[in-house]
Amino acid sequence: MAVIASRRSPTRLLTSVRSVLSGAFRQHSSLTTDLIENMDKKETWDRFYRENNVKRDFKNFEWFFGFDSVQDFILPLLRPQPSCATIRRVLDLGCGTSALGPGIYKHSQWPVHVTCADISPVAVQLLQEQANSKPIQPGNPSSRLTFLELDCCRLQARFGEQSVDVIVDKGTTDALLRSREGQPKAGLVLKQCLGVLRQSGCLLQFSDEDPDARVLWLERESGLVARVGVQEVGTLRGVCYYCYMITPCAP
Ligand SMILES: C[S@@+](CC[C@H](N)C(=O)[O-])C[C@H]1O[C@@H](n2cnc3c(N)ncnc32)[C@H](O)[C@@H]1O
């Protein structure tokens, strides 16, 4: 398979970011320009979530799409395994103010411990305040929902080796890969995810990047210690989205 380098081209990126932001900001702003170049930077996202919540009427911001579009990829993975009695641990990597993590907590009939983690304290605080002010009824009484400010380049400092069952990444690796200085961070985050995932675990990356570029990148960066699969999620505003499924290989 050939890598189509233009798939990460500035033009496509501009279209993609503008399309995602069109729901949040009516006009092209200096913030859009900042995002296009610096989506790997905490300050950029603090500013984004602050400006997006300037009227203080909190609304979840969804990059690409919401929980409903991806739940069928996630919920079946949460079924308890006969060999493992512990509660399933789920991490929303770069959660922003998305309702994805809370949605998993609400809709999983099986017990789960969902952690919503982001480098932006502004996003984490907004999401946590929302959950405090409007408590969510879990799909299972044993489930837990927690919020965490964390640079996911340092996942292994926070989570034990092979301690997480499912990691969901909706737009976070895309944000790193497309930033001026973010590519090494994207590779590091992938390696950190593989370090904290159980052998039976799975990392799901939701992305608009074409498989001919992303699969090769994933295979190269994971050092062939993981299997990579891909399925289409669907098309939104003319852009096709994919779910990349990365599972550790047995040693
Ligand atoms: C494109 S947004 C996606 C947000 C959310 N997943 C969604 O679907 O709306 C990327 C998110 O990744 C976060 N982020 C960027 N770099 C990060 C890092 N090193 N560690 C944790 N989160 C990071 C940003 O703060 C931002 O919330």
Automatic annotation (TrEMBL):
Entry-linked InterPro entries: Lys/N-term_MeTrsfase_sf, Methyltranfer_dom, SAM-dependent_MTases_sf
Primary localization class, coarse: mitochondrion
Highest rank taxon of the organism: Eukaryota
Compartments it resides in: Mitochondrion
Keywords from the UniProt entry: Methyltransferase, Mitochondrion, S-adenosyl-L-methionine, Transferase, Transit peptide
Coiled-coil residue windows: none
Catalytic activity: L-lysyl-[citrate synthase] + S-adenosyl-L-methionine = N(6)-methyl-L-lysyl-[citrate synthase] + S-adenosyl-L-homocysteine + H(+); N(6)-methyl-L-lysyl-[citrate synthase] + S-adenosyl-L-methionine = N(6),N(6)-dimethyl-L-lysyl-[citrate synthase] + S-adenosyl-L-homocysteine + H(+); N(6),N(6)-dimethyl-L-lysyl-[citrate synthase] + S-adenosyl-L-methionine = N(6),N(6),N(6)-trimethyl-L-lysyl-[citrate synthase] + S-adenosyl-L-homocysteine + H(+)
GO biological process: methylation
GO molecular function, a single term: methyltransferase activity
Entries under Gene3D superfamilies matching the protein: Vaccinia Virus protein VP39
GO cellular component terms given for this protein: mitochondrion
Domain Methyltransferase: 89-203
Family the UniProt entry places it in: Belongs to the methyltransferase superfamily.
Purpose: Protein-lysine methyltransferase that selectively trimethylates citrate synthase (CS) in mitochondria. Seems to conduct trimethylation in a highly distributive manner rather than in a processive manner, and thus introduces a single methyl group per binding event.
PANTHER family, per the entry: CITRATE SYNTHASE-LYSINE N-METHYLTRANSFERASE CSKMT, MITOCHONDRIAL, SAM-DEPENDENT METHYLTRANSFERASE SUPERFAMILY PROTEIN
Protein name in the entry: Citrate synthase-lysine N-methyltransferase CSKMT, mitochondrial
Source species taxonomy: Eukaryota, Metazoa, Chordata, Craniata, Vertebrata
